[in-house]
């Protein structure tokens, strides 16, 4: 009886159940372990295990624990459990006195692989088992399948796509679209003249504005002589010969060329590096190519690419609609080209056809999407399951372009798809791709040292920010944070940039933070009081946000929301009384409601309806939202899906948004949630001004901590 397998399952399960009761484990993890424990009692049919081991109690005990661990890791954002990285003293993040007894008579983790292979609940993916083991990685079966699908689709699409490319036509189109614009250089030179800039300063501006890469090969005496006499933008065109195209490298042009040559491309870059501008030009090139090809369908209609634009959240989709709209507007191309580039974006959920109360979507490989080109913005927010569903629904011929910032936080749910893909960016291009890109752009490329990954030819990283110039503290701070070197971050604060302000955390600065927030939020509340339309009120609210790293406590979203609410009430800006709902209450949706078209992360503000209800003679309080297409919708509070007050929000939830004034607070005690990616994401939400409230110590430690997400995607793509 002592070695009875069920007794052992039960023992492990009982331990796991205790952890659930203590709040250390999710009920879901326990349930999954229970399910796996049952499956594990089925030996592998026809295997050696069936004959020799049948149901080894140690195996079933181990597989039960591993199932709970894999499920727990998934909850932490990891796609799989890495057996080699199991810390026996900290299972489920527990202290060692609780962790070690869970292992009891189990062997050291380096022996687990062999034991797990004997379980009926584990396979290499060739059988329908709840767990899949791939080397040292253990997956929940569905997640293994998602990863396989994403990897195989990306590998496939990264190979081709340039077959119908017309290199000469596209090369001249790219030359036109990415032609040098001397206006920026002229403006910079004028500013330098006012400041008494030197020849060295002028040289720096030329290198920066014209993307010079081989500066030593240029005749700087002749160039400077031309610069000092140039009295107009046109006069700078002498630089066409003095600074020839071969000495420059415009990465935006390269990014567009990469996307022309592949069916799958990634354009990654920090805020304001021109991802949207580049994709607008790329779409113009694709439309031009189709117009010139002049292929018609049976009805005689011209065949033009069906282009769709999407983003993971409603907010991000609304931002994309706005930014691509203005990028397309400012393109120097024919109206017929412009009019065939869509500017309306939607959410990925909407594109895939969300079905209420179901995880499945209307579109999948059996019912693919109708499109030729798909642009996905804010791709760092797309988790592994969503990427898998998107790729599954993408028609075989379609081109997929991912835009995003690889340095931002990974998706809320499991995976770091964009980060994993971009890990190959430093490998360089293959000989074949270097030649093709050279033909398309006129630039010369260094070829990859070794055989690069299957996706390396699909990647382009944009480095130069057009939003944050050299005098911008936000840009410098973001760069320093990404370097992972705290002393560089410290140096940036010391330089005294006007757009960033650091407040060492303390009771005084805490009060300053609340006072600042109240002053900033007065703008949108005054707009309501002045009877402005909901669209304007939402715009005013979107100018400011307080971002927190954590949810609970005085430095978290919940505590700060209450404090801000009280402070605004004292100021007479809002009047909540005992009511949950009051005029001016801003809320964020935390649960998708497909029927209402409201999604997790959407922000609305409560205001009175402009019309009087004929029955009551009163005006109804509604919560107004901006929809992805830019329209405004008012919803009765009672109809809203789950939501929270949103004067303060987590940095996680702020992804895909930007605010003119961003206040950011880190808790006084360090915790593993505080990472470089978190701080970088928070800082780069600020467009004009950043106010940071933190201790130097916590900020320093956060900058050195990297988010690591276990996954096998990079190895499948290598
Ligand atoms: N090559 C360029 N020369 C001058 N200005 C540029 C260039 N590329 C982009 N810009 C300008 O920089 C700003 C940011 O560009 P864009 O919106 O394309 O960047 P983005 O990377 O998409 O930004 P975000 O991170 O906000 O999505 C815009 O005002 C755009 O007009």
From TrEMBL:
In the RecBCD complex, RecB has a slow 3'-5' helicase, an exonuclease activity and loads RecA onto ssDNA, RecD has a fast 5'-3' helicase activity, while RecC stimulates the ATPase and processivity of the RecB helicase and contributes to recognition of the Chi site. It comes from the Bacteria. The keyword Translocase does not apply. This is RecBCD enzyme subunit RecD. Residues 22-139 form the RecBCD enzyme subunit RecD N-terminal domain. Keywords: ATP-binding, DNA damage, DNA repair, DNA-binding, Exonuclease, Helicase, Hydrolase, Isomerase, Nuclease, Nucleotide-binding. Pfam families: AAA_19, RecD_N, UvrD_C_2. Heterotrimer of RecB, RecC and RecD. All subunits contribute to DNA-binding. It comes from Photobacterium pectinilyticum. The gene is recD. A helicase/nuclease that prepares dsDNA breaks (DSB) for recombinational DNA repair. Binds to DSBs and unwinds DNA via a highly rapid and processive ATP-dependent bidirectional helicase activity. Unwinds dsDNA until it encounters a Chi (crossover hotspot instigator) sequence from the 3' direction. Cuts ssDNA a few nucleotides 3' to the Chi site. The properties and activities of the enzyme are changed at Chi. The Chi-altered holoenzyme produces a long 3'-ssDNA overhang and facilitates RecA-binding to the ssDNA for homologous DNA recombination and repair.
């Amino acid at each position: 009886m002592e070695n009875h397998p069920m007794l052992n399952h039960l023992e492990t399960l009982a331990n796991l159940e205790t952890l659930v009761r203590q709040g250390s484990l999710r009920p879901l993890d326990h349930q999954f372990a229970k399910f796996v424990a049952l499956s594990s009692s089925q030996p592998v049919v026809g295997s050696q295990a069936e004959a020799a081991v049948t149901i080894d109690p140690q195996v079933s005990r181990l597989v039960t624990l591993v199932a709970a661990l894999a499920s727990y890791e998934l909850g932490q954002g990891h796609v799989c459990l890495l057996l080699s990285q199991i810390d026996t003293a900290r299972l489920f993040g527990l202290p060692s006195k609780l962790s070690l007894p869970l292992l009891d008579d189990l062997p050291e983790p380096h022996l687990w692989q062999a034991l797990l292979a004997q379980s009926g609940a584990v396979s290499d993916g060739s059988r329908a088992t709840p767990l899949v083991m791939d080397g040292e990685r253990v997956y929940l079966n569905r997640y293994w399948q998602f990863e396989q699908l994403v990897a195989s689709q990306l590998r496939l699409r990264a190979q081709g796509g340039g077959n119908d490319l017309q290199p000469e036509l596209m090369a001249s189109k790219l030359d036109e679209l990415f032609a040098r614009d001397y206006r920026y250089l002229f403006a910079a030179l004028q500013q330098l003249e006012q400041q008494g800039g030197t020849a060295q300063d002028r040289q720096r501006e030329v290198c920066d504005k014209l993307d010079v890469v081989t500066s030593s090969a240029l005749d700087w005496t002749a160039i400077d002589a031309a610069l000092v006499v140039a009295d107009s933008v046109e006069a700078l065109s002498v630089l066409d010969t003095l600074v020839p195209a071969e000495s420059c490298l415009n990465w935006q042009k390269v990014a567009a060329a990469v996307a022309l040559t592949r069916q799958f491309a990634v354009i990654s870059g920090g805020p304001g590096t021109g991802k949207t501008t580049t994709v607008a030009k790329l779409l113009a090139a694709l439309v031009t190519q189709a117009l010139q090809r002049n292929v018609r369908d049976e009805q005689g209609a011209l065949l033009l690419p069906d282009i769709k634009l999407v983003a993971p959240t409603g907010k991000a989709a609304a931002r994309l609609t706005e930014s691509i709209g203005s990028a397309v507007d400012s393109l120097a191309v024919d109206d017929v080209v412009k009019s065939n580039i869509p500017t309306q974006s939607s959410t990925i959920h909407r594109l895939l056809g969300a079905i209420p109360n179901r995880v499945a979507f209307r579109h999948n490989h059996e019912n693919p999407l109708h499109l030729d080109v798909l642009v996905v913005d804010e791709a760092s927010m797309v988790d592994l399951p969503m990427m898998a569903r998107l790729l599954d629904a993408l028609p075989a011929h379609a081109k997929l372009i991912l835009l995003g910032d690889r340095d931002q936080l990974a998706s809320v749910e499991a995976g770091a798809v964009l980060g994993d893909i971009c890990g190959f960016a430093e490998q360089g291009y293959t000989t074949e791709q270097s030649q093709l890109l050279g033909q398309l752009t006129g630039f010369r490329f260094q070829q990859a040292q070794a055989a690069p990954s299957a996706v390396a030819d699909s990647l382009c990283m944009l480095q130069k920010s057009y939003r944050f110039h050299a005098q911008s503290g936000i840009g410098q701070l973001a760069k320093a944070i990404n370097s992972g070197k705290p002393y560089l971050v410290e140096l940036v604060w010391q330089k005294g940039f006007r757009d960033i302000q650091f407040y060492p955390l303390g009771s005084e600065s805490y009060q300053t933070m609340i006072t600042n927030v109240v002053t900033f939020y007065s703008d949108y509340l005054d707009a309501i009081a002045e009877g402005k339309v909901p669209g304007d009120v939402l715009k005013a609210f979107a100018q400011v946000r307080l971002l927190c790293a954590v949810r609970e406590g005085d430095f978290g979203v919940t505590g700060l929301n209450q404090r801000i609410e009280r402070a605004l009430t004292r100021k007479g800006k809002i009047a909540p009384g005992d009511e949950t709902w009051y005029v001016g209450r801003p809320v964020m949706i935390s649960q998708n409601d497909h029927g209402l078209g409201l999604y997790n992360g959407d922000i609305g503000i409560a205001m009175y309806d402009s019309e009087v209800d004929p029955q009551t003679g009163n005006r109804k309080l509604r919560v107004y939202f901006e929809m992805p297409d830019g329209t405004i919708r008012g919803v009765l509070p009672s109809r809203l899906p789950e939501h929270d007050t949103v004067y303060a929000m987590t940095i996680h939830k702020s992804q895909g948004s930007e605010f003119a004034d961003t206040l950011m607070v880190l808790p006084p005690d360090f915790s593993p949630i505080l990472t470089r990616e978190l701080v970088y994401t928070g800082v780069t939400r600020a467009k004009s001004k950043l106010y940071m409230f933190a201790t130097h110590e916590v900020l320093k430690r956060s900058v050195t901590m990297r988010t690591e997400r276990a996954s096998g995607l990079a190895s499948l793509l290598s």
